[in-house]
Each structure stands twice: as structure tokens, then as C-alpha cells.
């Protein structure tokens, strides 16, 4: 029995406290009714009282005691308190049962109700003990009443029935309470699982790299995860219209709404931003049809596709280079011999020169593609960029023509990074030569400015290569780093692509931005010196 009378460290549950408050209110109501009954002197008329004085005193005592219990014990802290209050209630009602004349008074029904309510709060044998106290009290008091009132001997069957009813009510209520408790426990567990799953989904949604947007019919953003805000370059999208945040995405959505069978075109939300592939889904929410938008960053996929394409092209070129180079060398050599002939006329000599020029260009394309397929792994070294750039500029000036100038300016103290010096030389030579070539087309003196400084936001070394040429048209900016894209008739279109690949292999980044006063600016953002250590 001690196992059933263990104290509860936190008292009753919230539902148990509510039931106990209703139980207290019920006892107060019974006590009030009894007091009103004796105060109006209707007790003698309605009840065949065996002990009138005892009934009146017990009624007042029942009301006052329950009022004190309700005031002093609003929240019992252990099952012992609940059990004690239930036993006291049964004993007081049994006393009223005896004073009122036994089973004809109807107070036995109140005892059964009290037993039933107490068994909602109590469990197991301790609840049955309350029922046993009530049954013993009913039978014993009926027997004691029959001594002074022989006509009460006929109440034994009814008293026994009420005693049995007390046990039946206790067992039934305990079984029902046990089922309800299991259902409540299961419901709470399911609620916790749902809450945990919802929190997990919210966490997954926030950490997803895929951007997710939910729009209402007026294209107002109802939900935007961190991935969407990062891909679109916005800090807070919720509560704002899509037209004000990303008109390109709204245009793609309108085209999809007009024809859902069409695959939406990829887009770029901001300059130097990732290439995004949107997809749209109708989302029914109540009577409102919203739109669910998925944003996938396909920049890496496109880059990997280009790398696979170039790798395949490099392997193919490497396989047929020998067969192409031999006849190409023969053609170039034959054109050179033909050009040296004294009998060759001037128009034919010009045709021989064209053959030589295009042979050299074809050979250059083969060399560049072979360089992609045979590119060695980078071997980063700790470089002092100020010292390295000073030496590079000095060596470049010695080999450049008089009408070409390279300026160098450095800001800040020591700027270090880890990069393969040979690959950095290849990248910077390509950028400087391109800048001088485009600058010479516009000006009599070709000029390039090298500016080395530390980025105030990222604290990383940055090198900018600027020229005062015509610059790159805005519609071609997105294509300049693609392989084989060129604006010159003699270019191969691989220089900038190789330069960016070499930078990325050293965890640096090569970007383009237009120069404020005309011309081009290529920016190299180097890695932290401890990044590749």
C-alpha cells in the first residue's frame, strides 16, 4: 500500500488540480444545501431524522470544515492529503447518514458520489480503501441504527447495495481514469512529437541551401528561409512584395502562371550573384491559393558541367594533338617556304602570310586546351604580396614596350596569402596583358594600375587590375569567364577562364567590376594566409 501513497514532488497534474477544485466546490455546495435545509427548518419535514441535533451540528461542521479546506488546502501536494480529505469527507457524510435516519434520507448517494470523485484522483488500492471505509460505515451505521430503531433492520439490503455500489464506482472510475490517462499521455506524446517534428522541419527549412518562398495571391512574401534571402541578396523578405524585391523572379512567375508547362528560365537576382533556377508550385491553404517557390543555385552545377566538358575536350585534344600538329606544322612550314620564294607575287605572299597566322592561332588553341588537361596541382606558398608584386612589376616593365606602363600602389602593412607563385604569375600576366592591349586601343599610351589593399569588411588581401580601355559591355559581363568566349577575332577565349580556375584552385576569387571612370577592373580576393596551411 505504501507504493500507492507515495508523495508527488510536484503535486497533482494540471487536470488533477482542476478536478480537486471541482471536488472542493462540490463539497461546499453540499454543505451549503444542508445548512439552508436546517436553517429553513425543512429538515424535519423532508427527512425522518434519527438524531436531529447531531444532524444540524454535523451539517454546520461539514460546511465550515470544507470552507477551511478550500481556503487552506487549495492545491494538495501529495496523495496522502487527497486520501485524508476523501476519508474525512466519507466519515462526515456517514455521520450525516446516521443522523438523518439511514438509507431513506438519500445521503448514501452523496457517499457514492464522493467515493467516485476521490477515485478519479486516487489510484489502485488506496482508492479502493476509501470505498471500503464508505461501505463499512454504511453497513455498521445501519446496524447501529437498527438497535435503537428496529424498523431500520429492513435497510441492510439497501445499505449493502450502496456499499457494493461504492466498490463498483471506484473500480469503474479507476478503469475509466486509467484509459483517459493513457489517452492523455498518448495525446501529449503525440503533441510533443508533432512539436519536435515541427521544430526539426523549421530548423531544416532554415538551414537548407535551397531557397524557399511562399507568396499570397497578391505576391506578398509570407515566408522566406535564410537560403532564399541569401540567394536573392536581401536581409528581410517577409511581409514585402516580390515586385519590389526581385522583379526578375516575379516576371518568371507570371510567365509560369500563363503557361505552367514551360520550364522557367534561370536568372540572377543581383550583380555577381549566383545563377538561380526557380520552380513554382501551387499551395492550397484554406480557401486561399498561395504559391510555393523553390530557388536552386545552379552556379556550381554549371561550373561542374563546364569542367567536365573541358576535361573531356582536353582528353580528346590530347589524343588527336599529334595527328593535328604534324599536318599543321607541315602546312605552316610549307607556307613559310612558299613565302620565302622570289617568284611569289605580292597577293600570293599575302595568302601565305594568312596561312601562317591561322596556323599559329590553331596551335595556340591546342596549347591552351592541352594546358587545361595537363594542369598541375597548385603548390601554395606563403607570399608577401607587396614584395612579390614589386618584383613582378619590375620584371614585367623590363619586357614591355615603351608605350606601355604598369603602375603599382599598395596600402597597409604586410599583406600575406598562400598561393602558388607560378600560377599567380600566369594569372597576373594574362590580366595585365589584356589590360594593356585594350588600353592601347583607346589611348596612345597603354596603362594598367595594380592596387593592393586589405578589404575592410572581410580583412582579406585584395588586388585590383585596372585599365582605361573601353570596358566590357554590360550584356557581355556574364559571359567573360566562360570558356571559348572572346570578342576578338584572334582570341581563344580561354585566358580569363584559366585565370579564374587557377585562382579558385588556390582558394582565391577572380571577379570583374566596371571602372568608375571607364575601363575595366578585375579583382582578385586572396585567401587568408592560414587558410591553406
Automatic annotation (TrEMBL):
The chain crosses the membrane at residues 20-38, 58-75, 82-100, 129-147, 153-173. Its EC number is 2.7.13.3. InterPro entries: HATPase_C_sf, HATPase_dom, His_kinase_dom, HisK_dim/P_dom, HisK_dim/P_sf, PAS-like_dom_sf, Sig_transdc_His_kin-like_C. Residues 319-530 form the Histidine kinase domain. Pfam families: 6TM_PilS, HATPase_c, HisKA. GO terms for molecular function: ATP binding. The keyword Cell cycle does not apply. Gene3D superfamilies: 1.10.287.130, Histidine kinase-like ATPase, C-terminal domain. It catalyses: ATP + protein L-histidine = ADP + protein N-phospho-L-histidine. Keywords: ATP-binding, Membrane, Nucleotide-binding, Phosphoprotein, Transmembrane, Transmembrane helix. PANTHER family: SENSOR HISTIDINE KINASE (PTHR43065), SENSOR PROTEIN KINASE PILS (PTHR43065:SF52). This is histidine kinase. The lineage of its organism: Bacteria, Pseudomonadati, Pseudomonadota, Gammaproteobacteria, Pseudomonadales.
Amino acid at each position: 500500500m505504501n507504493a500507492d501513497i507515495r508523495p508527488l514532488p510536484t503535486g497533482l497534474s494540471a487536470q488533477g488540480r482542476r478536478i480537486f477544485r471541482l471536488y472542493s466546490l462540490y463539497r461546499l455546495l453540499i454543505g451549503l444545501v444542508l445548512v439552508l435545509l436546517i436553517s429553513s427548518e425543512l429538515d424535519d419535514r423532508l427527512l425522518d431524522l434519527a438524531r436531529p441535533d447531531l444532524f444540524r451540528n454535523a451539517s454546520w461542521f461539514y460546511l465550515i470544515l470544507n470552507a477551511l479546506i478550500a481556503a487552506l488546502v487549495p492545491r494538495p501536494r501529495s496523495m496522502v492529503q487527497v486520501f485524508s480529505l476523501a476519508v474525512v469527507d466519507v466519515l462526515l457524510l456517514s455521520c450525516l447518514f446516521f443522523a438523518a435516519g439511514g438509507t431513506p434520507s438519500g445521503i448514501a448517494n452523496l457517499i457514492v458520489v464522493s467515493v467516485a470523485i476521490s477515485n478519479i484522483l486516487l489510484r489502485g488500492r488506496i482508492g479502493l480503501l476509501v470505498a471500503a471505509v464508505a461501505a463499512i460505515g454504511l453497513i455498521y451505521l445501519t446496524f447501529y441504527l437498527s438497535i435503537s430503531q428496529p424498523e431500520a433492520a429492513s435497510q441492510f439490503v439497501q445499505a449493502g447495495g450502496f456499499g457494493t455500489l461504492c466498490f463498483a464506482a471506484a473500480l469503474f472510475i479507476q478503469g475509466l481514469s486509467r484509459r483517459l490517462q493513457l489517452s492523455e499521455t498518448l495525446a501529449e506524446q503525440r503533441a510533443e512529437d508533432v512539436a519536435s517534428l515541427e521544430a526539426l522541419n523549421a530548423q531544416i527549412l532554415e538551414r537548407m541551401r535551397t531557397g524557399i518562398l511562399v507568396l499570397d495571391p497578391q505576391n506578398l512574401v509570407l515566408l522566406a528561409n535564410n537560403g532564399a534571402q541569401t540567394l536573392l541578396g536581401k536581409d528581410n523578405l517577409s511581409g514585402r512584395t516580390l515586385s519590389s524585391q526581385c522583379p526578375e523572379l516575379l516576371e518568371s512567375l507570371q510567365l509560369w502562371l500563363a503557361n505552367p508547362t514551360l520550364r522557367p528560365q534561370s536568372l540572377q537576382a543581383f550583380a555577381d550573384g549566383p545563377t538561380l533556377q526557380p520552380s513554382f508550385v501551387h499551395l492550397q491553404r484554406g480557401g486561399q491559393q498561395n504559391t510555393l517557390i523553390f530557388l536552386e543555385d545552379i552556379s556550381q552545377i554549371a561550373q561542374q558541367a563546364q569542367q567536365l566538358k573541358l576535361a573531356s575536350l582536353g582528353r580528346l585534344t590530347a589524343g588527336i594533338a599529334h595527328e593535328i600538329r604534324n599536318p599543321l606544322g607541315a602546312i605552316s612550314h610549307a607556307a613559310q617556304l612558299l613565302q620565302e620564294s622570289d617568284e611569289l607575287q605580292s597577293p600570293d605572299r599575302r595568302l601565305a602570310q594568312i596561312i601562317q597566322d591561322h596556323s599559329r592561332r590553331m596551335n595556340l588553341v591546342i596549347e591552351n586546351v592541352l594546358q587545361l588537361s595537363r594542369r598541375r596541382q597548385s603548390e601554395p606558398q606563403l607570399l608577401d604580396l607587396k614584395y612579390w608584386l614589386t618584383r613582378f612589376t619590375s620584371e614585367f616593365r623590363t619586357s614591355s614596350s615603351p608605350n606601355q606602363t604598369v603602375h603599382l600602389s599598395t596600402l597597409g602593412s604586410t599583406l600575406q596569402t598562400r598561393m602558388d607563385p607560378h600560377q599567380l604569375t600566369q594569372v597576373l600576366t594574362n590580366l595585365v596583358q589584356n589590360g594593356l592591349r585594350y588600353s592601347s586601343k583607346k589611348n596612345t599610351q597603354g596603362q594598367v594600375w595594380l592596387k593592393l589593399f586589405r578589404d575592410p569588411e572581410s580583412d582579406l588581401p585584395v588586388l585590383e587590375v585596372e585599365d582605361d580601355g573601353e570596358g566590357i559591355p554590360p550584356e557581355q559581363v556574364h559571359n567573360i569567364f566562360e570558356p571559348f568566349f572572346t570578342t576578338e577575332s584572334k582570341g581563344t577565349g580561354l585566358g580569363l577562364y584559366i585565370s579564374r580556375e587557377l585562382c579558385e584552385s588556390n582558394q582565391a576569387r577572380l571577379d570583374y567590376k566596371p571602372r568608375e571612370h571607364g575601363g575595366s577592373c578585375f579583382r582578385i580576393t586572396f585567401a587568408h594566409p592560414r587558410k591553406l596551411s
